[in-house]
């Protein structure tokens, strides 16, 4: 039995493939472009398969003999569902690196199908959302009475084209938060606060992040807001947020934006990633005013993602959780993030 990287010729897929080779792994590389997939696989001496996700029968056939699929081909709003369907038909475990709330919700909706098929579905096996999900589970375990959860991150370094294309789609939706157990639409930057990151306090503003979906399933906490420290985000007001949503919903704007990103964005170089890092903060509070917080520092988000994907693949092959749809922490425990290279945890503290 073997495992596959689909979308291996993309920016993150290539990082995963190269790290796999460095660690002595021989995954099957796959994608829909014959020249690009072969150009990546042949010099590395790796097997490869070429198939499009449009035909469910073809996907299931291409996954024959594959134990785990690491799905790295975005935008996941378009590619996740057909790959999940193929994995269910083929009996292959599925993981991806999405950060899209609606994709998480769609995958979790297939829990019973996955359970019956004996398949694990694990969306968000990279930076979205392993560090935030594991920290959320840590603070929730320390405060079982928590009713509110704030999760924030601060990342340095550049972004890939795939990340920007997903961000373009997300901008058309606007803000999202978990309110009283349900995913709600809210204005972008509807909440602002100071966060004591390990490197110092920073002003953050709310934005839609995958944990709006995943952290609820990991912790059961009914009110969840996700934040980031991003230049200019804390200056976004309700009026400008609504205007930007209207503009970004235009099919013309979306099409031009994707074309521009595809033409000019290549993703951060190795030297840039080596100088970059990410910080994550989690804070749970309850109705009595008690709170528990924790934080972590890790390497560049793309390097963290590649490492996390490989460790998740290994875990799914050697010690898979019960079949069904999982978050990283429900699959492998909150301490999964401690296995990642270069991650340092600031342990939970009560107030």
Automatic annotation (TrEMBL):
Domain Saccharopine dehydrogenase NADP binding: 4-121
Any one Pfam family match given in the protein's UniProt record, by short name: Sacchrp_dh_NADP
Signal peptide annotation: none
Protein name: Trans-acting enoyl reductase family protein
Organism: Saccharopolyspora thermophila
Upper classification of the organism: Bacteria, Bacillati, Actinomycetota, Actinomycetes, Pseudonocardiales
């Amino acid at each position: 039995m073997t495992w596959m990287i689909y979308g291996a010729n993309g920016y993150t897929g290539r990082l995963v493939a190269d790290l796999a080779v460095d660690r002595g792994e021989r995954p099957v590389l796959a994608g829909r472009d014959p020249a690009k997939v072969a150009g990546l696989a042949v010099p590395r001496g790796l097997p490869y398969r070429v198939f499009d996700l449009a035909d469910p029968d073809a996907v299931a056939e291409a996954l024959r003999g594959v134990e785990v699929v690491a799905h790295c081909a975005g935008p996941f709003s378009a590619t996740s569902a057909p790959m999940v369907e193929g994995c269910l038909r083929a009996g292959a475990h599925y993981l991806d690196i999405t950060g899209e709330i609606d994709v998480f919700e769609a995958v979790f909706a297939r829990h019973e199908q996955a359970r019956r098929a004996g398949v694990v579905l694990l969306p968000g096996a990279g930076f979205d959302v392993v560090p935030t999900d594991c920290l959320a589970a840590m603070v929730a375990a320390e405060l079982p009475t928590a009713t509110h959860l704030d999760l924030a991150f601060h990342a340095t370094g550049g972004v890939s084209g795939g990340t920007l294309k997903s961000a373009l789609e997300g901008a058309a939706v606007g803000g999202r938060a978990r309110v009283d157990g349900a995913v709600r639409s809210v204005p972008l930057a509807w909440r602002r606060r100071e966060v004591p990151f390990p490197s110092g306090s920073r002003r953050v503003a709310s934005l839609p992040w995958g944990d709006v979906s995943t952290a609820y399933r990991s912790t059961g906490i009914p009110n969840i807001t996700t934040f980031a420290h991003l230049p200019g985000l804390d200056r976004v007001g309700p009026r400008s947020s609504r205007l930007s949503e209207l503009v970004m919903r235009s099919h013309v704007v979306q099409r031009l934006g994707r074309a521009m990103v595809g033409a000019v964005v290549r993703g951060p170089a190795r030297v840039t990633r080596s100088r970059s890092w990410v910080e994550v903060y989690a804070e749970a509070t309850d109705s009595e005013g008690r709170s528990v917080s924790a934080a972590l520092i890790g390497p560049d988000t793309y390097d963290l993602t590649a490492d996390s994907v490989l460790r998740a693949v290994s875990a799914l092959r050697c010690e898979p959780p019960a079949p069904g749809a999982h978050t990283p922490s429900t699959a492998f425990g909150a301490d999964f993030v401690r296995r990642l290279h270069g991650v340092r945890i600031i342990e939970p503290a009560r107030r």
